[in-house]
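Table S2 (continued). Query chain:
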Amino acid sequence: MAISQRTYMIVALALISLVVMLVPTQQAMSQLDLGEQTQTKGNGGIILSDQPGAFNIYGINGSAPLLNDTVATFHSEVVCSDIVSFGSLNASTSVMLRASVSAAIRNLSPKGDDQFAVFAVDDVTNYKGDEFGFVLPETGTTWYAYVQSPQLSGFYYWKPILTLKSDTSFHSLVATYTASGSLKTVNFFVDDKLIWVAPYPEISNQSFHLAMVSHKVSAETVNLSQITMQVKDASLSAFT
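Corresponding output:
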């Protein structure tokens, strides 16, 4: 059974409390109270669906990804195969990205820039702004969590979080941005387990889109037709 949104927020905020070593009973209670509020003060969200006008779906030098109801299918032989929400979400003190993903990597790419990704993004023109999410370089079968921001000293950080054992299983990927005082983090979960806590800058009141992409930069002669990804039940939601 998937963990509820409220549970993820409670876990993330409780972790913040541990990081800054503030663990008195009253502090813990205030974190739990905030977790309760996230369920009732959500400002809506973006949900993957084939509803007309909800998502920009396109392919370059190949077919566009297939979006059927709430399931998107990507093929890696296409140079650029993207699904990006037309609408954006105004971030507040907590933002949650979640998706179930399955990938079949039956032949490997020679380039790490051939990749699948599911992420939250504020710049859908140049993709050089604030982002956080999940990426699968097609040189292997390992998913990475990543954070990107011009406000970070290194701009981009990532961490391996899941190596696929089967090309038929779906895995739950969740990333939650939380802001508590001066401490801001993105907390990454795989199949309901916290894997990585990444420091992140202030993004409150910025607008984010939900994006799912497949990009191929290797030569046309490189055959990646046996590499596919499916994403289902993806969403991006924000809470105060």
